[in-house]
Amino acid sequence: MFMLAAAGWVLASLLIVDFISGVLHWAEDTWTAPGGPELLDRWIVRDNIEHHRRPGGIRAGDYWGTNRVCIVLAAAVGGVLALFHVHAWQAYLVVVLASQSNQVHLWAHCSNPPRLVRALQRIGLLQSREQHAEHHRRPYAARFCTMTNYLNPLLDAVAFWRGIEWVLVRCGATVQRATPARGGY
Ligand SMILES: [Zn+2]
Ligand SMILES: [Zn+2]
Description:
Blueprint: H1 2-31, H2 38-53, H3 63-83, H4 89-99, H5 101-107, H6 115-122, H7 129-133, H8 151-157, H9 160-170
The chain binds zinc ion (2 copies).
One zinc ion binds near residues 52 and 140.
């Protein structure tokens, strides 16, 4: 019974991280363009555009280069949880999985990932190469989640991202995806 509950929590944690990865990735692709705060440009916007321009380039980096932004952000969130005496292991599992979300993204760009990863990709617990490839098409408006294969079909089918954009555009925001400001990416 404990094993079943633990497996359920692991799956739930993966889906939570899948959703968080989707929200952050959607925000990067949709609302950012170079020329904002230098810190944002340097750590997020330029890498994000470069990844759309040359998707395979993600395989060239080392482990730290690929994962440092996620690890630093996850460590900060983990620190806040500890500060507020959060003891639930599930919260820390979410943080640990989130710290590796770009590694999962990298594997979705590999034709020959580790065997265990390949097996998990086949059942969708980690995102498959095929599903992530659907994101890398202009105008980069679908398949924003990068952790599993489960949430994207659901969110895209109900036009989840389009719905939020519809509201934000009416509040004055500008969709930047594939615009000249992002070099078409
Ligand atoms: Zn993207
Ligand atoms: Zn990608």
